Structure formats: C-alpha cells, structure tokens
Amino acid sequence: MATIKDVAAEAGVSVATVSRVLNGKGYVHEETLMRVREAIEKLNYSPNEVARSLFKRESKLVGLLLPDITNPFFPELARGVEDELQKQGFRLLFGNSDEDPEKEKAYIDTFLQNQVVGLISATQAFSQLNDERPAIPTVLLDRTHEGSYTVYADGIEGGRIVARELVNRGSHNITVLKGPGHIQPVQDRFLGAVEVLASSNVNFQVIQMASLTYEEAEQRAKELFSQYPDTDGIFASNDITAAAVLHEALRIGKSIPDDVQIIGFDDIPMSRLLFPALSTIRQPVYEMGQQAAQLLLKLIKKEQVIEQNIQLPVSFIERNTTRKVKRNG
Amino acid sequence: MATIKDVAAEAGVSVATVSRVLNGKGYVHEETLMRVREAIEKLNYSPNEVARSLFKRESKLVGLLLPDITNPFFPELARGVEDELQKQGFRLLFGNSDEDPEKEKAYIDTFLQNQVVGLISATQAFSQLNDERPAIPTVLLDRTHEGSYTVYADGIEGGRIVARELVNRGSHNITVLKGPGHIQPVQDRFLGAVEVLASSNVNFQVIQMASLTYEEAEQRAKELFSQYPDTDGIFASNDITAAAVLHEALRIGKSIPDDVQIIGFDDIPMSRLLFPALSTIRQPVYEMGQQAAQLLLKLIKKEQVIEQNIQLPVSFIERNTTRKVKRNG
C-alpha cells in the first residue's frame, strides 16, 4: 500500500507539498499539483480521500443569517459568533435577509455554493423553512424550533420579571407593547408578562406591534399616550421601543419614573446613555453568539453534544426609569 | 483542435455538464467530474484555462474589514455594502479587527485563502499596511490613504458646519471632544471645526479622546463639566459621545439647549430618540457602503473607473439640542 512518502518521491516534491495538495490549503503551483495528482493516481494512494480533498475542499466557512444588522441587538450577537469562530480558525459568510423568505433562500444557496460547513440562523424565516433546510450542521440563535439545535435566552422568565418589577414598584395601569407574535422569543416575553399580570391586582392593556423597528416604535409611542393617557407602567418589548416611549413621555411632560415607569428588553449599549437611564432586561447577547458558535463547531466536528437546546438566563438591570423599592423591609 | 462538444462526447455527458465543470459552478458528481477531466486531458482541450477553472475557482466572495460592528456607525455601512454586492451576486466575508494589526493580517490571510476577489476595508490599520496589502482590488471605506481607491464623507465640511452652527446659535465658550488623531475622517472633522472656531470671536477648548467608545464617552462627559463648568456649546465628535454628554448635562441639572448646545456626528438611528433629540451631522452611511461596493465591483470587472476618490456630502440635522435661529430676519 502506497504512503504519502511514496507519492512525494514519485512526484519529486516534499511530503509537505503533497500534504498541502491533499488538504487543499496553502499555495501549490499548478504544475506541481498536476504532478502530485498523477503520482497519487499511479500509486493508487487512498483514492477516495484524495478525490474528496481535490474536488471538495473542506472550507472553514460558516454562514450567518441575520434579520437586519442595523437593529442594535444583532451586532453584538454577530461579534459573539465571529470571535468564537475566529479562535478556531473559522470565518463568517454573512447575510441580512430582512425576514424575506426569497432573500433567505438566495443567501442559503450562495452559502452552499461557497461550501460553508455550517450555518447559524437568527431569522424566523429560516425556522419555518422545514424540508427546504440545507443538510449541513445548523444552529438556531435567538430563535427556537422543534427538533433543531438552538441557543436562546429565557424570554418567558424575562417577561415575568418585567411584570413583577412594574407591579412591585407601584404601577396599577400597565401597558404592554407586544412585538410580532410569529417571533418566538418576542412571544415568550409577552406570555411571561401576561402570566404575572393576569394573577396580579392591576389593570393592563396590550398594543400589538407589527415590527420592533425605530419607525414603528416612534409611531406607537405617540398612539400609546393618546389612547391610554393614565397608564403608569410600560413594558416596551425591546429597548428601541422603550427609547421611543421614553422620548414621547418626556415630550408630553410626564415625569419619569414618578408618573410612568418604563422597562425595556435587551440592554443594548445605548440604553444606559438615555436620560433617565433605561431599566431593562439584559439578554447575554454576546455569550449567546459564542455559545451558538461553540455548539455549531461541535456539530461540524461530530463531537458529542449533550444539550440540543441551550437556554441562557436573563437579568433585571435596574436603572432610573423605574422607582426605587426598599428591599427587606 | 478539440471543442467543448468533443469533450462532452468523449466523457459521455452533456455540454452543459462540461460547462459546469469548467466554470466550477453547480453540482457535478465526482465520477462525472473525473470523466470530464480525463476527456479534457485526452483531447488536450485548452489545458491552461481548464486547469485554472478546475483548481482555482473564481469565487464571488468579497472581504469586508471593520473596526467593530457593535459601534452603531458600522452596521448601516455594512448593509450598504452587502445590499449592493448582493444585487450583483457577490457575497460578504466579514471580520472585525478592533484596529489590531495582528488580527487584521490574520483576517486578510484567511480571506485570501478563501479566494476573495476583492476587499473593502473601513479600518485604519489596513490603510497603514502599505507593502503588506494583498494584491487584489481594494477600496477603503470611511478611510483615506494616498494612492488608494476610497469612499468617504466630507469630514472637514462637517466640522466647519458644527462650529458655524454652535457660534451662530449663540455659544461663546465651546468645548470640542476630539477623537483619535490617527483616524483620518475623525481628524478631518476636528480640523474643519477648529478652522472656523479660530476665526470666530469665541473661546474654545479641546479634550482629546483615545477612542470613540461608550466607555470613554461616559468618562469624558463627566470630566468635561467638572473641568469646564461654564461651557455652553459642545462638539461631540460622534453621536455616542454626544449621547453621553447629553446624559451627563441633564444629570447635573443643565437645561438643553438653553444652558448648553450639543452637536454630534454620524446621525445614528438612536439619535432622534434621545430627549431632547440630538442635533447632528448626517453622514450618508448606507450610501457610502453602496458606493464602495459599486467601485469595488468595477475594479474586479476591470471596468473603467473615473473617480478614484469618492467624497460624499454631509448635512446638518437640526433637532433639539441646539437653539432655534430666525432665518432671513
């Protein structure tokens, strides 16, 4: 049986060169490549492995699908993924699909043409592709779907915390700005909040939003105070919406948090620079990205995976859009 | 001389299949690939072109180097690049170098290993690589460097506008928070401002910042008002810094814009949600990304390029951190 040394001798090159050809890495002159291939064929050196190496280079590329990187929740998520992949020599191919299924499919197609070895998706559209999903290792990030590998934060508990904090700090007439129902983590935080509100002795109302964008946030914030002028506690579903609500409340002369308490969700970097600084629920965004990358790399390397669904905890960040409570008496 | 039809006949496959093999596009079974290659060799069909197609696939990948996508200026820049590339079937490989030259080189190396056909860099470290730059089409974005292809906004004029607006709206004691001097567009906005301030009848002072990050912005904002309690006009160099300054001013009881006027730079999406909404200089960020992608694609396709350096205009966005002036009497 021929060895790599035999191939090198036959081709008149070093073992290192043969190795480069086999692994498809580093620079090899075309003529050398031809010579090595001829030697491999002549000596019948492990032909299947060779064919694989020569014609199906294993890439070190991973595809990342996001809804929209200009939403300030996603850059930190992407950095977590990228930094973790980079440590292990993998690189990111990257696309924003705007949750448009056609764009989503186009990105997946070109990711596959560029031979990505794995995929991380933070889009809802991807979760719903079902049979059309590519047959490569895939992790859903900030999204959940039955039977998938997933990394996400505990939205239900996050929603519960918001409702509890608003009630405990004295709000009696609470407004929940509810994000799009088809996005599971957004739905979860709503369900958690309603679970607590329903069992509390407070009034509450729900405003449905079609998106969690800047534009809609500004519009809904205006509607909110004309529709519910007496609301004294607001769960804003994400920090952008909370910023818009805070802006509108101050504009119409409300005192924050005395007249109205506001709690956001995400803890984007800008939240602590708002004035008053925003009380919110912190999702461990960067860590979510890292964990998704770690899980994907395990799948790519066919290592054992113990947890198929990784849920990370959230926490309440108390700043100045909520009233102070005395703890322990 | 053999034709593609001869190759197809010899290999017992369709012309389309041979074409797929030659172009390295679409799915071809390994055995078929072998047969086509054998036929090509046997008939001696345009061997150099073939070798090139088989072993050096032309990718449709472009590398994008950013300092840090979590700085809210960059996501929109990246979207502009991506959306334009996508229209023409190109995809983005993407890396954040944190302006670390080692990380920068590591990214460039792996971009090249993955056969990117062009590069867009928004990092300063890249501008300074000089001889170590890769020999592929490259465009600098939001950065300038002699002899390079560049797309950037008119920072000098931006700086002039800020100084003029502060002075015309009544500030007499102006503080300039100056970003890192080695970043050319940041230096430009400073130079533009100083040019106007120096010829105006006002006092001004300069605070040097080592970065334009959230952390430093918060720290400098606190120092600013203890060091210069009587300042009545602030040019904050970017919107994050402006947000930190606004926060601190309100925290210590200043009335904005009556006591202090504040102008930022960039017009990130969050700026209009601050309260009072931030007056700032708008850079056409998304358009800058698009134009960089268009320029790069021209270079890749060896089309004629008329402008090597594309400078886009900036504009003053008047919101509520500056006083109102009566126009035309």
TrEMBL record, chains A, B:
Residues 3-50 form the HTH cro/C1-type domain. Residues 2-56 form the HTH lacI-type domain. The keyword Calcium does not apply. This is LacI family transcriptional regulator. The keyword Transcription regulation applies. It holds the Pfam family Peripla_BP_3. Signal peptide: none annotated. One of its GO terms (molecular function) is transcription cis-regulatory region binding. It comes from Pseudobacillus wudalianchiensis. Keywords: DNA-binding, Repressor, Transcription, Transcription regulation. Gene3D superfamilies: 3.40.50.2300, lambda repressor-like DNA-binding domains.
